[in-house]
Give the backbone structure.
Amino acid sequence: MSTHDTAALQPSHDMIPVAGAIEVDIPVDVLWGFFTRARDWPRWNPCFLWVHNERLALGQRLTWCFRPIHPFYPYVMPAVADIVEVEPGRKVTWEVTALPGFHARHSYLVEDAGNGRSRFGSWEQATGPTFRAMRDFWLAHFTFVKDRSLEGARLLEAVYKQHGRLAPELLPSSHPSLREAASPVAAALSFYRSHVRQSVVELGPGVRVVLGGGGNSLIVEGRGESLLVDTKFFPGSHMLRRWIQKHVSAPVKTVVNTHYHYDHTQGNDLYPRAAIVAYRTVPASMHAEDGKFWSSHRDGVPVVLIGDEGAELDVGGRKVRVGHPGAAHTHGDLWVHVPDADVVATGDLVFHAHYPFFDLSPAGADVDGLAAVIRRLAAAHPTATFVPGHGPVARAGDLVRYADYLESLEASVEAVVRRGASADDAVLLIDLSPWSFKKLPVSHRGRLVWTSAESNIRWMYELVKSRARDAGPRPPARSMNGAASVITGAPR
């Protein structure tokens, strides 16, 4: 690592190093000798899919590919690093700087623990704006690397105890077949096309929506200025910013956040000259739910706060109406109406063609309020084009169908709860497949999850049970052992 990068990393408060070590019954010279065969790492260390280098050498560029942190996550992660430290028999360290704004240092350590035993350890620390933008993911990834590496050392210990030596042929083959290698690549491409890639739809003169890469974003151009609704999150936020710089002539002077969730707001500070507008409770919700991020991105916290009465904004001579629907997707939602284009941006009041996300935090969802709000918006704007928080643009009929789904899901879960059933029972008993919705990846409170039929049922179960607790005591949940008819929750 260069002196400059070392100086940047060491005083960083971005993260506490992710570190761990175990002792294994392998002599240190045997373990070190086998460990330095980098190309064989995937045979014993489950975090690696492939490594290019045959050996480790100071000053060499290390090239490899990580497996995903969970088998069902559709990605693989290529990586390049410079080997900056090699202490023979003890330690190797590399520095990752290929990703702009991201500096990471990873060390593997092999030490003599005495009596023919060795201590094997993994240590990693990172800093930089790109790290901070996806801090939860990177910490999960570093923990995955550490845990799988120590798990691999245990595998080597078992092989050594059985054979008295370590050799590649004693380990299972890690080299994927063409089919195995193509599968994660195809999945990664599918994930990119479905959730990362952005597309632009023109909805009227000076009104365009950028779909994907986070929450959908609406751009409204007036004379000499523009308004942006929702700013996505990294890397989609930067992709959006580059598109605006290239295709929008008027500067963004106003940003509206439809609610506090990260995928609609974490690009806010890319528009330092814009007034950031949100409902009055949004700053408090940001700090309560994503405090670590917003404490280091204070310029992105909204400063123009709207109350229950809503507001009318002037965007270079164009009137834009902003309204608060009451508690719905969250307790701090806004919708945005562009009258002269007959366009309404709903934020996550509407998920179109996807299973929705239900926020279970105190600032989160009110399903009864949400369904009612959606019906009111559809009735008030029967000919409008609606920009949902996620999914393709929609019409009033799509909103009505989504409200039907919410009410049907709620009724189905309530029926299961009345029987005294558990959440597991509800998942078995309720069939949401007739709705034909798609899954959507979301991260909340540091956890990456997918919206799905199962997650929707479980989240609704918690909301219904919470409402029941507020209303008074209920009998405890009991297992029904699947002894009930399936509730279809089919579309009306």
